[in-house]
Amino acid sequence: MNLEQTTDRLILRILSADDAEKVLQFYKDNAAIFEQFEPLIGNDFYSLEHQKNLLTYEYQEILKLHMLRFWIFEKDNPDRIIGTVSFHNISPNIYSSAQLGYKMDQHFWRKGYCYEAIKAGIRIVSGDIGIRRYEALVLPDNTPSICLLKKLGFHKEGLLVDKVFLQNRWRDHYLYGYIVPKM
């Protein structure tokens, strides 16, 4: 698998600890938005050291094919992270499934970038690892994310009650699923 993939408008890149400053800036720029939808992992999340450690850990997990995270860049600005799409809990063989995660810099919403990156990511993970089922969790009131998942072909499969501890309380999440069409 290549560490860098391209689409019509984007570069999808696997990063290393050397890129921690870019990742930290991405998270700091979008902290108010992201913290509505995700729990913070550790009290030092917004530190350079934490991001270096996280990128090192993720890179090791990528090598084992347990997860895959692409950081999203515009082709016209290949040095600024505008988003990320990740595939985690990758289970090949009889389960052939992975969980999808994504986030975009708030200044790049509604441009179709997230859609483009996820489509490319699914194509790559399906082709290189053989995954055919994808799952995504979304808060019931996150209408933009629900619309994105539907546009991608995901279908709501149910409600997971008290799934994630977020903003100091347990929050329900919808489970959306997508099966790669047979070729």
UniProtKB/TrEMBL annotation:
<dbReference type="InterPro" id="IPR051531">
    <property type="entry name" value="N-acetyltransferase"/>
</dbReference>
<keyword id="KW-0012">Acyltransferase</keyword>
<feature type="domain" description="N-acetyltransferase">
    <location>
        <begin position="10"/>
        <end position="183"/>
    </location>
</feature>
<dbReference type="InterPro" id="IPR016181">
    <property type="entry name" value="Acyl_CoA_acyltransferase"/>
</dbReference>
<dbReference type="Pfam" id="PF13302">
    <property type="entry name" value="Acetyltransf_3"/>
</dbReference>
<protein>
    <submittedName>
        <fullName>GNAT family N-acetyltransferase</fullName>
    </submittedName>
</protein>
<dbReference type="InterPro" id="IPR000182">
    <property type="entry name" value="GNAT_dom"/>
</dbReference>
<comment type="similarity">
    <text>Belongs to the acetyltransferase family. RimJ subfamily.</text>
</comment>
<keyword id="KW-0808">Transferase</keyword>
